[in-house]
Amino acid sequence: MKFYVTTPIYYVNDIPHIGHAYTTVAADVLARYKRRQGFEVFFLTGTDEHGQKVYDAALARDKKPQEFVDELVLRFKAAWEKLNISNDDFIRTTEPRHKKVVRDIFSKLIAQGDIYKGEYEGLYCVTCENFVTESSLKEDLEGRKLCPVCGKETKTLKEETYFFKLSKYQDRLLRHIEENPDFILPVSRRNEIINFIKQGLRDLSVTRTAFSWGINLKEDPKHVVYVWFDALINYVSAAPDGFWPADVHLMGKEIVRFHAVTWPCMLMAADLPLPKTVFGHGWWTVEGKKMSKSVGNVVDPLALADQFGTDAVRYFLMREVPFGADGDFSMEAFKARYNSDLANDLGNLLHRTLNMIEKYCESKIQNPKSVRAGHCPAPTIQILNEETPKRVEEAMAKLQFSDALTAIWELISTANRYIEEEAPWKLAKENEERLKEVLFNLASALLTIAEQISPFMPETSAKMLEQLNISGGKIAGTIVKKGNPLFPRLEK
């Protein structure tokens, strides 16, 4: 009953944006859900602090690299605290515990011949910290050779290096992917990786000598470990005893290749088990345009959380698009979700129900005879109330967070319709016993809703449970404590 989930470790000189938040909130939702199921969970995130672009950025600010990253890492830690991220550990690649494991694995692979010395000459993208093949390049009108991923200009690199025998593990990796359909998800990413591997894997340059900011080799100190080879090992270097292999690596689709090709081959060489699932989700655009610092359209999730509340941001990210597909952010869409789903549907349901219990039943949830005797036909709301946790579980097993929330909101919508159909304000005058049953059913549905949204919206769930005041699952006899509306409606 152990469960290990990771985000990628983020480049420390990035500013936390909606893309980082998307991956991290998804991992947090999964971790919270598994904890609720009774799993012992280890949830890891962190920062990638080595590499040439970090080194260059530090020099440009006249700072020592370690001083530079020590300042920048605080931004990510503050961001995850603001977004209520429940990570169990935060790994930094500059930590001694990480460096030791990287050096140990590197030494093992050198000793067994899976890493060998040579010379590299080719194209390198500093922005992506990635070696680029000539055939994959883009070219602009000025004839500059551009990285196929980020579009930035590449540079020719020639230096002594150590190579990892990536090609040695090509056939074994293909067999593993074919024998384990859930190893790479969604299916579209799996197909892309299979096609890439079948084109032939080349041995990978895994050290640099052009700069000193990185983990030096014990065997050859002028060499520092290539940033991706260094960074990927974090998943092992931080794992407590008994937690490896990871159950799920979550990441954006642009780095799936490193996690689904380079990383498993490294693990095979090190004689370590492979992670169970590598899941590459889609990208977020902003009103149809790619997010870019130069364009000035980078969405700050912390500013959104300050203005609209953390749970509103978490809800939007998990609900707006199917996990795995690309998404588009706009303030119009965000506010529409907030007003429709959170203010009108969820917030209004809780406030109306508790208001009626307070008004008609002196704030006490009554135990109706029909429910107690068990002879009343179950209305749709009772049936759906029982089915919703099962539907959520099915969606979460497939990492379909949006589908899980859709199932919960179907119960919310049904409960709101139930109020209109039953009209408790009329039953208060005509049928007191039926009124008790309706309010009991609504309170029961709200309890289910509060429990099911807890991984997605932990603060909202806690507020709902506080107002419902239900303990031990015993609904009848509870004195509710109506509070302020959860999500005040936004003005247009």
UniProtKB/TrEMBL annotation:
A motif ('HIGH' region) lies at residues 10-20. A motif ('KMSKS' region) lies at residues 290-294. Residues 390-471 form the Methionyl-tRNA synthetase anticodon-binding domain. It catalyses: tRNA(Met) + L-methionine + ATP = L-methionyl-tRNA(Met) + AMP + diphosphate. Its cofactor is Zn(2+). Its EC number is 6.1.1.10. Its main location: cytoplasm. GO terms for molecular function: ATP binding; metal ion binding; methionine-tRNA ligase activity. Binds 1 zinc ion per subunit. Zn(2+) binds at C125, C128, C147, C150. Residues 3-354 form the Methionyl/Leucyl tRNA synthetase domain. GO terms for biological process: methionyl-tRNA aminoacylation. It is found in: Cytoplasm. ATP binds at K289. InterPro entries: Anticodon_Met (IPR041872), Met-tRNA_synth (IPR014758), Met-tRNA_synth_2 (IPR023457), Methionyl/Leucyl_tRNA_Synth (IPR015413), MetRS_core (IPR033911), Rossmann-like_a/b/a_fold (IPR014729), tRNAsynth_Ia_anticodon-bd (IPR009080). Keywords: Aminoacyl-tRNA synthetase, ATP-binding, Cytoplasm, Ligase, Metal-binding, Nucleotide-binding, Protein biosynthesis, Zinc. CDD domains: Anticodon_Ia_Met, MetRS_core. Monomer. Belongs to the class-I aminoacyl-tRNA synthetase family. MetG type 2A subfamily. This is Methionine--tRNA ligase. It comes from candidate division WOR-1 bacterium RIFOXYC2_FULL_46_14.
